[in-house]
Design goal:
Layout lengths: L1 E5 L6 H11 L4 E4 L5 H11 L6 H20 L7 E4 L2 H7 L5 H11 L7 E6 L2 H9 L11 H17 L4 E5 L4 H13 L1
Parallel strand pairs: 1-3, 1-4, 2-3, 4-5
Bound molecules: adenosine-5'-triphosphate and the ligand Cc1cn([C@H]2C[C@H](O)[C@@H](COP(=O)(O)O)O2)c(=O)[nH]c1=O.
Ligand LXEULUCI binds next to helix 4.
């Protein structure tokens, strides 16, 4: 089982991952970007805003993803894997290119290994505004509210285009309500 928690910045992924870690001691927890040794270096390069070209930035994330699939996902396919972000973020955040092209590049990076369970935490514009004000923003978060809402729409579109087994959850529900929905989905 390859479960991924998706959502734009501040959607509540880390909060739910902490609960899952407590409830699923047997699972392997991982993340993109930065789930491997090489990925840690790529994450730093991708998030420090050094890449002036959006295409260069996307290839950093794609390199991270290819390494993560080979080193973490494929060797553990028989285990329960839970990942903070995935190919869905990869496709959605590369918003300067059409979805079809980015999907093709990502299917090369993943060698067609896709999540079996997608949990997408969905924020309203109002809630996103509130949550971003409560933290210091990295180079991607600094692109603003409308940018992130557009990414969230692309995430939903990507999940549907790839026909992935999914649940979209209102991220404004209480932490407990969300975690119960996640458990039901995983166990269902
Ligand atoms: N259901 C919820 N209701 C209200 N606030 C929440 C909820 N879930 C998380 N939060 C709060 O929202 C903020 C962002 O949560 P969290 O760090 O879990 O998000 P994230 O998706 O991991 O963010 P990022 O992608 O930026 O790392 C935190 O202050 C957290 O306490
Ligand atoms: C996988 C992936 C991520 N991003 C963006 C999304 C976030 O702004 C950061 C990752 O930060 P987090 O604290 O680990 O959530 O990177 C992206 O632009 N492209 C991608 O493929």
């Amino acid at each position: 089982m390859y479960v991924v928690i998706e959502g734009i910045d501040t959607a509540g992924k880390s909060t739910q991952l902490d609960i899952l870690k407590n409830n699923h001691k047997e699972a392997i927890f991982t993340k993109e970007p930065g789930g491997t040794q090489l990925g840690l270096k790529l994450r730093e390069m991708a998030l420090n805003g050094e890449a002036k070209s959006k295409v260069a930035e996307m290839f950093l994330f794609l390199a991270d993803r290819a390494e993560h699939i080979e080193e973490v996902i494929k060797p553990n396919e028989k285990n329960m894997i839970v990942s903070d972000r995935s190919v869905i973020s990869g496709i959605a955040y590369a918003s300067n290119l059409p979805l079809e092209i980015v999907i093709s590049l990502n299917l090369i990076a993943t060698s067609n290994t896709l999540p079996t369970h997608v949990i997408l935490l969905e924020l309203t514009k109002e809630e996103l505004t509130k949550r971003l004000q409560g933290k210091s923003n990295d180079s991607i978060e600094s692109r603003g509210i409308d940018y992130l809402i557009n990414i969230q729409n692309r995430m939903k579109e990507t999940v549907k285009m790839l026909k992935l087994n999914h649940i979209f959850i209102d991220a404004s529900l209480s932490i407990k309500e969300i975690s119960e929905k996640i458990e039901d989905f995983i166990n269902g």
